[in-house]
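hiii so my PI (J.) wants the whole complex modelled not just the main chain, which honestly fair. so below is everything: two entries, each one labled with what it is. i double checked the lines twice but i was tired so who knows lol
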Amino acid sequence: MIQFQQVTKRYPGGFDAIKQLSFEIQDGELVFLAGHSGAGKSTLLKLIAGIERPTAGSVLVNNQNLARMRRASLPYVRRHIGLIFQDHKILFDRSVYDNVRLPLDIIGFGHQEGHRRVLAALDKVGLSGKDKLNPVSLSGGEQQRLCIARAVVHRPSILLADEPTANLDRDYAQDILQLFKSFHQVGVTLVISAHDENLMADYGRRILRLKHGQFTA
Amino acid sequence: MKHWIRLNLIALSRTLGAMARAPLTSLLNLLVIGIAAAFPLGFYLLIASAQSVTAHLPVEPQLSVYLRTSVGTPEVEALKQKLKADPRLLNSRFVSKEEALKQMQAGLGGTDLLAGLTDNPLPDAFVLTARTDVPAEQLEALKSELSTQSAVEQVQLDSAWAHRLQQLIAAGIALLQVVVVLLAVALVLITGNAIRLQIVIRRDEIEVAKLIGATDAFIRRPFVYFAALQGILGGLLACGIVAGARSWLNPSVLALAQSYGQPFSLARPDWLLAAITLAVTTVLCLVGALIAVSRHLRQFR
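here's the output for the full assembly
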């Protein structure tokens, strides 16, 4: 469960990205996060992942308060979270396979089990057979899928996606959302941000609308 | 435990991978470490060699006091008493001109020195041995003090050169200490800088790894391995450089020493010294790496 209580995030310089926000996301829920760029969507996702710390209020993820957590404990929280970044953050100095392998190395998976999982994740996102390629040779959509494979390979209970459909055409975006839906069906909690509400509307899920760091109706 | 070993194996393979990806940089870095460590090691061996020479030499400073030929027996007796009472001297020995001539003859073998001479040309002399704890300045004072005596023709400080060599070695050791400290600092800085560069090069990887749940230890490990490996290989290289330089220099040093009649040879780095060198370079590289890593990893969240 993800729980925000009166959370404010003020960046150095005095800009409030999030203002006194309170909400709950239940386990296994799929929630969309809508709003224009600059509305605070990315900051909200970063707060859930412990990448940013709240200036005030408390952020509870699986009943742990990230606001008061020691820095050294954060990595273990993040291992329950899969992150899909707006800018992908793919490493171009290594193969597709090694990109997906990284989270497993961090956790310390065995060679065999890790290998199996990497191939399974690549298969899931439709990149099987491309594991030896350098990510540079992938298309934009494929890079997005690679990023998803890396986010789910260690089977996190929470998946956070920041603008996963931003640069994709509508059909491709639908494919990606279908992929997320399949994770939702196996019980993963998903928070997906997007500025294009038309896509979300088709799914009939809860939509949190942000504007200037606060919810709008 | 098994998990921990696995994490370390992963780190080691990541380290070797990074080194293999940039072989030239790794090699150049190794060379810098090796050369930096070779200096104090070679210098130490040079001093150790010189010390082994002075160990064979008499360290008690000796003075030869040559008397005027015109001096009579009472004056010689007076001087003998005076020298006996001097607290700076360990003992004094009178060498008469007859004795000196005999010694000289013995040293030259069969040739009759007196054949062409009507008179013994050698002077009477005292051979003085000073106490070892008498400082060099006092010996010099003693020398000039004796020179002013009316009976004395000339005073020679025989073992001054051995003493000078010892002082030279003492100065060398002091210099070695300075070199060791400076190059130790240099090694820490060199490794620190190499690690800093690696962190800059791999900052994307570090950033992503931290974002998806890597602990600081996970990030630190490959760099620590890298530094340790560079330290070990750099130390080996230093031993190799010194051993190579020794075999290059030793023949000419041997020839030079032989021309002075001294059995001098440059010392060879032994296993213990090699092990110490390896240990020191490794520790210094590790220190450099840990400083660099802890300084630069704070910027990642």
